[in-house]
Structures are given as structure tokens and as C-alpha cells.
Design brief:
The protein is built from eight helices and 16 strands. It has helices spanning about 1-15, 60-100, 115-120, 130-160, 160-165, 170-225, 395-405, 435-440, and strands at about 15-20, 35, 235-240, 250, 260-270, 275-285, 285-295, 300-305, 310, 320-330, 335-340, 340-345, 360-365, 385-390, 420-425, 430. A hairpin with a 6-residue loop joins strand 7 and strand 8 (about 300-305). Helix 2 (about 60-100) packs antiparallel against helix 4 (about 130-160) and helix 4 (about 130-160) runs antiparallel to helix 6. The longest helix has about 60 residues, at about 170-225. It is rod-shaped and about 125 Å long.
Length: about 450
């Protein structure tokens, strides 16, 4: 298109002959066209008629040539500008094609698979940002800028003397090209906006969960900062596990010796459902379920010894503080279950004659699939716990009642509940606990 226009004006500068010029001598109803002739050809009886100028003076040949050269310069400038625009469009289209060519989750190209490339750290868009949302925003802005530049180019062509003088078919062709480019750009912008909406939808739920967790943790930190001076003794604290995740937990620094009997007691409060999860677990090499207390899904609360199971008649998921004790001895695998000082159940044949192995890891709030790890969020404990103590013998029912009704303070002889023996991880917290009497009022 531009080459045709440039040729037309160059022909004027190099000796085109006029067959007719609109002027006073033109017969009525006649039409004039300009035909390019070789430099040595005769004008064939087509004299150049006088062209009226301002003040009645005729333009000289030099002035006409200067005008034509000026038009030629304008056309060359426009040609260079459009060439630059085309190069920009080709580069951007190439980048978009590379984005769309990555296969998505369904294996088809153009379905969002390029996001995986960003997730792997590959910058497939040159110097564009690695965040997919930023990529979409930047491409949208680039598309709009390019559209504006095309519109400005059209306005410049209209404003220049060359556009108005173009033949109708050339103007229509230029308009069609500009229209096609505009439609392509709008289509790309729409596709990118769809991808942007998809990304926001995919991450909104995860973002909401993360924000909720962070808010809960900030509240716990604030409570800890306000009440840190309220610790009256090393055992007056509680561990909080506010979310059902696979990364919030507490860890007992001490391990267990070889045991032929034990008693485990603790205060806990949880309203999680279904099931409160795993208040504690003890794993050793070769046996992840050496000792586990768990309530998972809609199952009853269970005590596991060496992966053997006994169902306990305990009911503690009402959101109130409860005092829980379980006892076990290797002789005949006898066990007992106490809630709030009262014995609710007993049984036998739970891993009989199996001594508890030493040197394992004791975790609060998570069930271990390997020693110290591979937690399952569906089995996590959600709530608060305190006064986790372990003895290497079966406590008498009277002792358990006295501990539960706050009439005696009896730390575990192998695992006592003291602050410097408990570490918390992943956002689990430690802060001052209610007094024993206040917990009793909650029952």
C-alpha cells in the first residue's frame, strides 16, 4: 500500500505528465488523471495548464518539485513508522504464541500450561515478570498501548496531506488492515483476561486459608506477648494447635526409656469434627505406632500400642476442658481409660508382653507415619492441651482422681510437663494456661 503511494509521488518528482488539471480551462463534466511517462517520452499533447496561485502568480517548477519532495519525505517517514509498528506486533505475537503453545493440564496447547513453566522458574517471556498475574497485566497494558499507537498512526495519516489524496481502494485497504489488527489485539486481550480470572479463582481459596491462619497466629502471638509475664511456674502453660494442618505440632525433647507399664495423663480441649485428631504419638524405628492416642473421622477414640488397637469409651469433642488418663501394662496387655477422674473403661490383650521400645520421638498434635515426620493433616489435633505427663507405672485410681480435681500436683517421673521440655513448630503456640480450678469450672 505504502509502496504504491510512494511510487505515485516519485513519478510526480521524476517527470510525470499531466493529462488534465482542474482549472479554469477544464471543460465541464470532464475527469483528469495523471499518468507516469518516461523521462524521454513526449507529453502527447498534454501541456501543463496554469495553476492559479495566491495573488495570481503561477508556481515555478522548483516550487512544485519541492512540494513533491516534501510529500515523498512524509511518506517515507510514515513507512518507517509503520515498519516499526509491524516489528513490534510480530515480536509480541511471537511471545503470545509461545505462551499459548505450552500444554495445559488437559494436554492441549493454550490451556494455561504456561503457568507451570513459571512455577518451574522458566521465564518464557523474555524479560517479563515471572508472576503469571503480572505477566497478564503487563501484556494487557502492552496490547492497549499498541492499539493506541495504531489509532494515533491512523490519525496521523488522516492529518497528513497524503492520506486525503489516496485513492479510495488504498484508503479502504489501510482501514481494513487497521481493523484486522485491532480485532486481533482485542481478542488477545480477552484471552489474557480469561487466564487472569482463572488464576485468581484457583488461588482464592488457598489465599483465604493462608490469611485465616496468619490472623489466628497473630492473635496468638499478641496473647502470648500480653500474658508472657503471667507464667507463675514452668508447668503453667498450654500448647495451642489452632488449625488442622500437617505442619503445626509440638515436640517433647526427652524420649522414653524401655517401658513395661505406663500412665499418660493430660488436659485437653477440642471441638474439632469429625474427630479431635491425634493428641500425641510416640514412634520408634521400625514402628511408627508404638503409642498413639487418636480419634480419626467418625471412629471412637483409640489407643494404639505396637500398632494394636483398643477403643476407649471417651467423649471429649465438646469444646470443654477434660482431664484424660490412660494406663497400660505389658502383663496381659491390660489397659484403663479415665475421663475427668472417673474410670470409664478397661480391657486386656492390647499388645500383651510387648515392652515399649526406647529412643523414639514423642509428638504432640500429629500422628507419625515415620519417626518424627510424614504427618497427615486429616489426623491432626485441633485445640489446646496442657499438663502432659508420663509415668513408668500404672497410677492408682485415687491418684488420678486427685490430679483431675486439682487436689494434688503430681508431675510425670519420666516425662514431666515443663516449659523447657516442649518445643512448638509451624505456628503452634505456647501461652499461659487457665488455672486448674478454672478448667474444672469448664467441665
Amino acid at each position: 500500500m505504502l509502496a504504491l503511494l510512494a511510487g505515485l509521488l516519485l513519478s510526480l518528482a521524476s517527470g510525470a505528465s499531466w493529462r488534465g488539471v482542474r482549472g479554469q480551462e477544464s471543460p465541464p463534466g470532464s475527469r483528469f488523471v495523471c499518468t507516469s511517462l518516461p523521462l524521454d517520452a513526449a507529453p502527447s499533447g498534454c501541456p501543463l495548464p496554469p495553476v492559479p496561485m495566491q495573488g495570481g502568480a503561477l508556481p515555478s517548477e522548483e516550487e512544485l518539485k519541492a512540494t513533491v519532495l516534501q510529500l515523498r519525505e512524509t511518506i517515507l517517514q510514515q513507512k518507517e513508522t509503520i515498519g516499526n509498528q509491524r516489528e513490534t506486533i510480530r515480536e509480541l505475537t511471537s511471545k503470545l504464541s509461545r505462551c499459548e503453545s505450552f500444554p495445559g493440564p488437559d494436554g492441549k496447547p493454550g490451556t494455561g500450561g504456561w503457568r507451570k513453566e513459571f512455577a518451574k522458574g522458566k521465564d518464557t517471556m523474555g524479560d517479563l515478570p515471572r508472576d503469571p498475574t503480572q505477566v497478564i497485566d503487563q501484556l494487557s497494558r502492552t496490547m492497549q498501548t499498541l492499539k493506541d499507537r495504531l489509532e494515533n498512526l491512523e490519525h496521523q495519516l488522516r492529518a497528513n496531506v497524503s492520506y486525503a489524496a489516496l485513492p479510495n481502494e488504498l484508503r479502504e485497504m489501510l482501514q481494513r488492515r487497521l481493523g484486522d489488527l485491532e480485532r486481533q489485539l482485542l481478542s488477545k486481550v480477552a484471552e489474557l483476561e480469561d487466564e487472569k480470572s482463572l488464576l485468581h479463582n484457583e488461588t482464592s481459596a488457598h489465599r483465604q486459608k493462608t490469611e485465616t491462619a496468619l490472623s489466628a497466629l497473630l492473635e496468638r502471638v499478641s496473647e502470648l506477648e500480653k500474658g508472657s509475664s503471667a507464667f507463675k511456674s514452668p508447668d503453667e502453660f498450654k500448647v495451642g494447635l489452632p488449625l488442622r494442618t500437617n505442619y503445626l505440632y509440638g515436640k517433647i525433647k526427652k524420649t522414653l526409656p524401655e517401658l513395661y507399664a505406663f500412665t499418660v495423663c493430660l488436659w485437653l480441649r477440642s471441638s474439632a469434627s469429625p474427630g479431635i485428631g491425634t493428641p500425641f504419638s510416640y514412634a520408634v524405628p521400625g514402628q511408627a505406632n508404638e503409642i498413639v492416642l487418636i480419634e480419626w473421622g467418625n471412629n471412637p477414640i483409640e489407643l494404639l500400642i505396637n500398632d494394636k488397637v483398643a477403643q476407649l469409651p471417651l467423649f471429649i469433642s465438646d469444646g470443654k476442658w477434660h482431664h484424660i488418663c490412660v494406663t497400660w501394662t505389658t502383663r496381659d496387655g491390660m489397659w484403663e481409660a479415665f475421663q475427668d477422674g472417673e474410670k470409664l473403661g478397661t480391657g486386656e490383650n492390647l499388645a500383651p508382653w510387648h515392652p515399649i521400645k526406647p529412643g523414639g520421638v514423642l509428638i504432640l498434635g500429629q500422628e507419625q507415619d515415620t519417626v518424627g515426620g510424614r504427618f497427615d493433616a486429616t489426623q491432626a489435633f485441633v485445640g489446646e492441651m496442657s499438663q502432659f505427663n508420663i509415668w513408668d507405672r500404672v497410677l492408682k485410681a485415687e491418684d488420678i482422681m486427685n490430679i483431675a480435681n486439682c487436689s494434688t500436683n503430681m508431675p510425670g517421673n519420666i516425662i514431666p510437663w515443663v516449659d523447657n521440655n516442649v518445643d512448638v513448630f509451624g505456628g503452634a503456640t505456647k501461652w499461659p494456661v487457665e488455672t486448674c480450678e478454672e478448667r474444672l469450672l469448664d467441665l
